[in-house]
Specification:
The protein is an all-alpha fold. The protein folds into 2 domains: 494 residues, Up-down Bundle (Sodium/glucose cotransporter); 65 residues. The chain has a two-stranded antiparallel ribbon with strand order 1-2. It is globular, with a radius of gyration of 24 Å.
Length: 610
Amino acid sequence: MLLIDWLVVAAYVLIAVVLGVVFSKKASHSTADFFVAGRSLPWWIAGTSLVATTFSTDTPLFVAGLSRNEGIHGNWFWWSAAIGQTATIFFFAKYWRRSEALTEIEFVAQRYDPGPERSALRIFKVLFDGVLFNCVVMASVTLAATKVIQVVLGLSAEPVFELGGTGDAAWLSISQAGVVLIVLAVVALGYAAASGLYGVAYTDLVQFGLAMLGTIWLAVVSYRSMGEGTLAENLEGVPGFHDQLLGMFPDLMSMDILTFTLLVYVMMNWWAIAPGTGYFVQRLLATKSEKDSVLAFLWFNFCHYVLRPWPWIIVGLVSMIYFPDLQGSDAESAFPMMIDKFLGPGIKGVMVAAMLAAFMSTIDTHLNWGASYLVHDLYRPFIKTDGDERHYVRASRACMLLLMIAAVIVTTMLTGILDAYKYLGVIVGGIGSVLILRWYWWRVNAWSEISAIVTALVVGNACEFLLANPVGPNGKETDWFAVRLLVTVAVTLAVWVGVTFATSKSPSPQTVRFFERIRVPGPGWQRVAEQTGVAALPGEFVRSALGWFASMGLIFGLLLGIGYALLERWPAAGVSVGVTAVSGVALVWLLRNGALSGVNRKSEAAEAVS
């Protein structure tokens, strides 16, 4: 790192601080300003902010390491989420915006009948989603940023501060890289606490530009460094390389564990993602209109699955030539090692700034989002019910500080990024079906969701012990993530559906009021529609389904087409281009002829029931 590189890093930090100051007064007016930017974000800012937030420091490390360890097809672990996130565009985005909730968890109060079970569910989701899940994600991001800083800045992994003992006995140990990250986290905490979602969203625009510039440049330089020949030809002879690493799909005829895992990803790994969760919902709630919420998520899907993946994958695969000895979780260090090897003065500063900005971007989002749960869904309704708006904004800033401290502690407990994500994936995947059907089936109630959460936690954790990855004769583990997920989903689905039929016999007044305001289409609300005489727009469900399929064709056609072209597999690339063209034409036609029908309808959320 030369002076010019440090100047680039310093420039980004300065921009973030300035934006925090600029928006501080505006964000202090109310919790709506602080948590959802006064519902003022246009689609391109909300969508880009989501892309920047999901480009956390751990993401390129995770993808590069996954591509080395499992091959290109291993990315179906997260590519499969596109099935759910394209569903969000048409089946959920506009309804979230129409609800005018302040957080995802407020949906519980809008949807379910008042009672102790609803309060218990709301409080549990605050603690599980807003604290536990949130801190694990922030910890994984911090772990990844530590690897980047240690490699690129040449800092020592040896502790400079220990608490509760020394060496292995210390329960809190901070290295030189940890000190740097604490400083960056304090900066992120400072501007996020000052400016709320305004500052978070607008700094994300800068971060996204830096990140794309740096990663594309690194991928191009890495690819060209191989010289003549295709990627496959250059990787031949590299220790650990085999042809299957370059496959877009595992051998679908073999029905081995890799094929089974892919099928589980495609069939059910996306369920929990489809209805929108966490900060995804927060950005939808922050948009200017229902139309902006739909377009924001469409833009996010394009950027997330089409623009970003291949630079990370290429860097990960090419790194096998230069760093062949990296295995397991150590493979996650390949990406920062490639930065250090290939990027020169100036552009290295851009890349380092992008990675550090990614850390700050993810941290500020999770702090703001987690605080929104703690204040709006716990403190305000159950502890301090009579405070003014400025009081709750001050409480939000205090909660952000507490979450930051908790995340630092959790960081010391993690050893690998992928392991953390797969553990959470099993638990969260188990409750995906109830999160979808609570929108589309009137019978779903608070007991449905409670039973799903409890079952997923019990079964998911039991699977972690009883169905742990077996070690084969070669001494390597076989990944049984898909087996654990399948068992958890199946048991959880059976339990919560049974509980639903036992606890919901007829539509309650709360259920009727929810339908009259949101007007979700589909057969699951037919009984309520007949009872009230209120119905969704004719054909809305069918148009949403067609939009979903068209957007999936567009996203996957582009994603796979780019990959086939990079691997010089031209027939497959041609097929992907054809799928992309047909899907794109269909999607444009749908958007112009009814897929956005009703999304500009003025919200009736002012009449929301508590």
